[in-house]
């Protein structure tokens, strides 16, 4: 076994043969030899030897585990089920073998048999998890059933009854069991019942995720179109945490639904199950203004309320009623936002969503405004003003990113673009000073300048400027020498080299990305798309195999 673990398969086969000469019927030795044969490419011999042992229906743990490993390496999981079916018949009260049998069925997607194995296990050892394995198997049968009607009339109701039995007997112990009950009711579209479960005593068990209970309540209120509750709950949660963006969206959605329905609170009763409801634009405006006032007192203000104000302006503008509610000018609000949060990398992505509130005639003025408050200093009169620290650098980067987004670079002619590239690279090289102590795995603070310069050159190349693409490559390679783990540099290099038909450096760049799991599918195509047409069949097949291996091993986990 040690030889197999160390990858010395030939030695493992020799040692197994020695053992078998002394003890002819040692099952485990035969299986370990079969694993060695499988790993040295002698699949047929390995299979014959394994079947010889399997035919004897072994019940010792070592043989069963070794055979399981072998069948898994052979990609024959269905043989594992046969193995444990035989073991369970011989040792009917073994908890371990029954649970192995259940897992073996899970790997081959035998949901009906999983259900039976789960119940058989529960009868031997009445533990909750085994009972709920059986319930989960019913849910899997309902998901995989071709006939949706069968799913809703047979599998799910049966699963619901099984859980209800445990609820009545007060045997629900774990959070996962409540989650399962909720999932069944949701799939049966019994939203009212699901809501009662979450709000009731069982809902108290939902503790592992932050706000798990509230999120589930919110989902059910939405399904039931109970907008007053949606609004009141999101208002309550925003009072607790004014930075939770999802609840701003729900708050606005529900408030405008109530406005459209002309909803009014019932007289002399509570507004809703969740308390006070906001059902007018005035209330929404006041609520957001209050959140901002509260945040402005904080030493570390949160971004949520300021962005919520912009979101409310957008919604009111869409409804054609912005002027009635003096929320302020979006341009001024975004300017103030930049002054508060411009030194954070997220400032650009925050404002990016709201730039459509600016009229295009204001773009240049807006960028000039931002530059005016960005702390840059020049040593001589004709020199470019540069940032003195990383915060100033980040602010300037945000302005540069917004300029690109608003099309200011796009409007430049060739000469202006080349000047911009020169300036961006100067800023990039200056910014490297701040990252001298960065580890190889960390990105340089100024990397984005280099990236943007490359994109401007790519624009020129696509407009017919042939020399620009070679400059792109030199700048990216320079960037990579300072930031060896910058994935954006690598992905852009891969695309450019492939477009130029130079495949040699691409394989190395791709492997240095260290792509994991699903990434072989999401970015692997950058390689495979060109590898085949450029005649690099080995690299193409290798990349396809990576993706195939991922899908093969994950198929059972996610099905």
Automatic annotation (TrEMBL):
The keyword Cytoplasm applies. Keywords: Cytoplasm, Repeat, TPR repeat, Transferase. It is found in: Cytoplasm. SUPFAM superfamilies: TPR-like. Pfam families: NatB_MDM20. Gene3D superfamilies: 1.25.40.1040. GO terms for cellular component: NatB complex. The keyword Cytoplasm applies. One of its GO terms (molecular function) is transferase activity. PANTHER family: N-ALPHA-ACETYLTRANSFERASE 25, NATB AUXILIARY SUBUNIT (PTHR22767:SF3), N-TERMINAL ACETYLTRANSFERASE-RELATED (PTHR22767). Non-catalytic subunit of the NatB complex which catalyzes acetylation of the N-terminal methionine residues of peptides beginning with Met-Asp, Met-Glu, Met-Asn and Met-Gln. May play a role in normal cell-cycle progression. Belongs to the MDM20/NAA25 family. Component of the N-terminal acetyltransferase B (NatB) complex which is composed of NAA20 and NAA25. This is N-alpha-acetyltransferase 25, NatB auxiliary subunit. It comes from Anhinga rufa. The gene is Naa25.
């Amino acid at each position: 076994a040690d030889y197999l673990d160390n990858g010395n398969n030939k030695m493992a086969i020799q040692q197994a043969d020695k053992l078998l000469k002394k003890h002819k019927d040692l099952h485990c030795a035969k299986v370990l030899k079969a694993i060695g044969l499988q790993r040295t490419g002698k699949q047929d011999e390995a299979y014959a030897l394994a079947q010889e042992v399997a035919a004897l229906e072994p019940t010792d743990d070592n043989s069963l585990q070794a055979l399981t490993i072998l069948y898994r390496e052979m990609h024959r999981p269905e043989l594992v089920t046969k193995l444990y079916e035989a073991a369970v018949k011989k040792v009917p009260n073994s908890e371990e073998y029954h649970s192995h049998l259940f897992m073996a069925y899970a790997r081959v997607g035998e949901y009906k048999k999983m259900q039976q194995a789960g119940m058989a296990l529960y009868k031997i050892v009445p533990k909750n998890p085994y009972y709920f394995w059986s319930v989960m198997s019913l849910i899997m049968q309902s998901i995989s059933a071709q006939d949706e009607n069968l799913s809703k009339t047979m599998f799910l109701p049966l699963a619901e009854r099984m859980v209800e039995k445990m609820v009545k007997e007060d045997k629900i112990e774990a959070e996962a069991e409540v989650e399962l009950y909720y999932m069944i009711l949701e799939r049966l579209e019994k939203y009212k019942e699901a809501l009662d479960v979450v709000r009731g005593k069982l809902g108290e068990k939902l503790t592992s995720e932050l706000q798990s209970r509230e999120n589930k309540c919110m989902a059910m209120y939405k399904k039931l179109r109970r907008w007053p509750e949606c609004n009141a709950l999101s208002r309550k949660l925003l009072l607790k945490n004014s930075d939770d963006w999802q609840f701003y969206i729900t708050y606005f959605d529900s408030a405008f639904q109530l406005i459209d329905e002309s909803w009014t609170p019932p007289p002399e009763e509570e507004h809703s199950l969740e308390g006070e409801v906001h059902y007018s634009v005035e209330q929404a405006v006041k609520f957001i203004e209050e959140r901002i006032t509260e945040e402005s007192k904080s030493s570390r203000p949160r971004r949520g309320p300021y962005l919520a104000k912009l979101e409310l302006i957008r919604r009111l503008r869409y409804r054609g009623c912005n002027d009635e509610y003096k929320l302020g000018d979006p341009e001024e609000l975004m300017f103030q936002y930049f002054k508060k949060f411009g030194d954070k990398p997220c400032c650009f992505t925050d404002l990016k969503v709201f730039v459509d509130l600016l009229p295009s005639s204001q773009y240049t003025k807006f960028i000039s405004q931002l530059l005016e408050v960005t702390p840059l200093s020049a040593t001589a009169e004709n020199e470019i003003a540069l940032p003195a620290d990383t915060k100033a650098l980040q602010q300037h980067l945000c302005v540069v990113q917004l300029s690109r987004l608003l099309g200011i670079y796009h409007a430049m002619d060739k000469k202006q673009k080349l000047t911009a590239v020169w300036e961006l690279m100067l800023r990039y090289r200056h910014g490297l000073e701040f990252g001298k102590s960065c580890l190889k795995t960390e990105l340089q603070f100024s990397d984005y300048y280099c990236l943007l310069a490359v994109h401007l050159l790519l624009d020129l190349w696509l407009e017919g400027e042939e020399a620009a693409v070679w400059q792109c490559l030199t700048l990216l390679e320079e960037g990579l020498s300072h930031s060896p783990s910058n994935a954006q540099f690598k992905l852009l290099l891969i695309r450019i080299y492939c477009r130029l038909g130079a495949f040699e450096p691409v394989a190395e760049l791709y492997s240095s990305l260290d792509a994991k799991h699903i990434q072989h599918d999401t970015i692997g195509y950058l390689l495979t798309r060109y590898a085949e047409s450029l005649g690099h069949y080995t690299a193409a097949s290798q990349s396809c195999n990576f993706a195939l291996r991922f899908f093969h091993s994950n198929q059972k986990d996610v099905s």
